[in-house]
C-alpha cells in the first residue's frame, strides 16, 4: 500500500478535474459534457496526492442533511492497486460522518462493485446506464 503524501478537501478543483478527465474522458470515453456536468460548485471535493503528485479524487454531492452522494471516484492508472483509492474513501467517509452525514450513497460501475463492497457498501436496485457504462446504486451507513 502506498503512503499518501496528502489527502485534502479542496476548493480549487483543477487537480480533481485533470484526474477525472484522464480517467473518465480519455480512459473510458465518457463525453466531456457528461463528465463536467455543472454540479461541481454544489459538491465537496477531495484529492489524494502521492510522491508523484495528485493521484486520486472524488466529489460528494450533499443530497440532504443526512445523506451524502459520493461521485466521480477516480484513481490514475499509475496509482491503481496501491491502496490510495481505499484510503481516500475511508478518509472521506470519516469526514462525512464528522460533518453529520449518517448515510452515503453512490452509483458504482459494475467493474467496481467489489471495491465498494469491501468498504461496506451494499448494492440495491437494477443495473442502469450512466454515460454508456453499466452502474448499480449502493449505500451504507456512516
UniProtKB/TrEMBL annotation:
This is Predicted N-acyltransferase, GNAT family. The keyword Transmembrane does not apply. It comes from Jannaschia faecimaris. PANTHER family: AMINOALKYLPHOSPHONATE N-ACETYLTRANSFERASE-RELATED, AMINOALKYLPHOSPHONATE N-ACETYLTRANSFERASE-RELATED-RELATED. It comes from the Bacteria. Keywords: Acyltransferase, Transferase. PROSITE patterns: GNAT (PS51186). GO terms for molecular function: acyltransferase activity, transferring groups other than amino-acyl groups. InterPro entries: Acyl_CoA_acyltransferase, Bact_Acetyltransf, GNAT_dom. Residues 3-142 form the N-acetyltransferase domain. The lineage of its organism: Bacteria, Pseudomonadati, Pseudomonadota, Alphaproteobacteria, Rhodobacterales.
Amino acid at each position: 500500500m502506498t503512503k499518501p503524501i496528502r489527502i485534502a478537501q479542496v476548493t480549487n478543483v483543477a487537480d480533481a478535474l485533470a484526474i477525472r478527465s484522464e480517467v473518465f474522458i480519455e480512459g473510458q470515453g465518457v463525453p466531456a459534457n457528461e463528465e463536467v456536468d455543472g454540479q461541481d460548485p454544489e459538491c465537496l471535493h477531495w484529492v489524494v496526492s502521492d510522491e508523484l503528485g495528485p493521484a486520486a479524487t472524488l466529489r460528494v454531492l450533499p443530497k440532504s442533511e443526512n445523506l451524502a452522494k459520493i461521485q466521480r471516484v477516480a484513481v490514475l492508472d499509475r496509482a491503481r492497486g496501491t491502496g490510495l483509492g481505499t484510503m481516500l474513501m475511508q478518509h472521506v467517509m470519516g469526514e462525512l460522518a464528522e460533518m453529520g452525514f449518517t448515510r452515503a450513497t453512490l452509483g458504482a460501475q459494475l467493474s467496481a462493485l467489489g471495491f465498494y463492497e469491501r468498504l461496506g457498501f451494499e448494492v440495491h436496485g437494477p443495473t442502469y446506464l450512466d454515460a454508456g457504462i453499466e452502474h448499480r446504486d449502493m449505500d451504507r451507513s456512516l
